[in-house]
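Reminder to self: tokens first, then the designed residues, so the page reads top to bottom the way the pipeline ran.
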């Protein structure tokens, strides 16, 4: 029987993914679908941590463009990620996946504080850990939080879930002849200015040789296929 390629993975989810087709608010259907895909991977014995964005509720950069102080807007965005983390925790536990939420912003009544050793212990006990609150600092994206947490807890890969089936040399929605990469190096992605992650997150992954797989989460069983080592999406490596 084929065994999973990875033992411990970090799944990066955008807030928009929780909003379903519209990308806004919280879609129960989208949450349920994600929970089932994570459950499928957990049943293979793979340890899963999740970093989730908040763009379906509030995005700090967009808020600053409307006159909100940038740091304040970023804190508002971090709170949005905690709302999403709680919604995803609820969906996961409804399908029988034990889950813990840890927040980089202290809020004891609804989430544990982020403690690396405690997060690793949860994983060892078979729980999924969702990290909310970004890094806890303004001016850093949840992409950066994903790269940081992946390295902190010893993940073997960052799985960046999107609505597109990989990285293209141009926007496939605009250019029907856009070419999709199956594999690409960090250097090539930087040279081509491909929007894999923001620069800080990407540099952190590159410096620590943390591979990134960009894939479409909305195709059934795709997360399982990635974890099993199938050629799904685009892999970014050294």
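Designed residues (238 positions):
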């Amino acid at each position: 029987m084929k065994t999973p390629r990875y033992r411990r993975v970090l799944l990066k989810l955008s807030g928009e993914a929780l909003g379903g087709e519209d990308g806004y608010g919280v879609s129960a259907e989208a949450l349920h679908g994600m929970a089932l895909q994570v459950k499928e991977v957990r049943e293979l014995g793979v340890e899963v941590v999740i970093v989730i964005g908040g763009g379906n509720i509030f995005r700090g950069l967009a808020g600053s463009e409307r006159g909100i102080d940038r740091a304040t807007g970023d804190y508002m965005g971090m709170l949005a990620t905690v709302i999403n983390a709680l919604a995803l925790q609820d969906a996961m536990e409804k399908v029988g996946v034990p889950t813990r939420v840890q927040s980089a912003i202290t809020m004891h009544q609804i989430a544990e504080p982020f403690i690396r050793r405690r997060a690793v212990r949860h994983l060892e006990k078979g729980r999924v850990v969702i990290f909310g609150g970004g890094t806890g600092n303004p001016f850093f994206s949840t992409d950066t939080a994903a790269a940081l947490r992946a390295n902190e807890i010893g993940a073997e890969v960052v799985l960046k879930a999107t609505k597109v089936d990989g990285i293209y040399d141009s926007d496939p929605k605009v250019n029907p002849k856009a070419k999709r990469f199956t594999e690409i190096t960090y250097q090539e992605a930087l040279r081509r200015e491909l929007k894999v992650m923001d620069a800080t997150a990407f540099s952190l992954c590159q410096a620590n040789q943390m591979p990134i797989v960009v894939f479409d989460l909305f195709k059934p069983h795709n997360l399982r296929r990635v974890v099993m080592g199938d050629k799904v999406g685009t892999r970014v490596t050294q």
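Residues 116 and 210 are 18 Å apart (CA to CA).
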